Amino acid sequence: VYDRAIAKSLATKFSSCRELFETDAGVPRELAQWGGLGEMAGTFVTDVEGAANARTVRGIDEALTRRCFGFDTVDEYYAHASSDQRIDAVQVPLLLLSAADDPIAPGFGIPTQIARRCRNVFLAVTKFG
Q1: pLDDT by residue (tens digit) across 31-87?
Q2: Which of 55, 42, 43, 50 shows the shortest CA–CA distance to 7?
Q3: N or C: which end of the chain has fewer CB within 10 A?
Q4: What would the mean pLDDT of 13-40 be, rounded to a whole number?
Q5: In degrees, to the nearest 5, what angle opens at C-alpha 128 toward C-alphas 93 and 125?
């Protein structure tokens, strides 16, 4: 439910500024990729129809987000964006709260094993959110 609602909102917002991603003739425009902290890495072309008609957040990420950040696939983008790759580096006390039934970040994706081995991380997962 939430995924579809968020995707619909994002697709509507994308559609309202579609001209940023297309030429006047409706051809997808080549845009600068985000390279991090103001640096540009290259260029990308948005799947304009895919973004405007996306029904899931993954659809938006496929059509726009992963391309903007220079990833070949959505799964590659998700793996890079995931916090589980950075938990080991936490050097101050950190409390992580999550719910096993979260529709956006479901329980199977909670990095419980990684959090257990980090002395500065306390992970609390409730059954329901």
Answers
A1: 999 877 666 678 999 999 999 999 999 999 999 999 999 999 999 999 898 888 889
A2: 55
A3: N
A4: 89
A5: 25
- Which own/partner pairs from 5-10 qualify as long-range (CB within 8 Å, at least 24 positions apart)? 6/57, 6/104, 7/54, 7/55, 7/56, 7/57, 7/59, 7/60, 8/55, 10/54, 10/57, 10/60
Task: Specify whether the CB–CB gap between 7 and 54 falls below 8 A.
Answer: yes
Which residue has tokens 């990095």? 111
Classify 42 as helix, strand or coil. strand
Averaged pLDDT of the chain: 91
Tokens of 91: 């050097």
- Quote the tokens at residue 110: 């909670």
At position 85, the amino acid (one-letter code) is Q
**62, 76, 125: which is closest to 97 by C-alpha?**
125
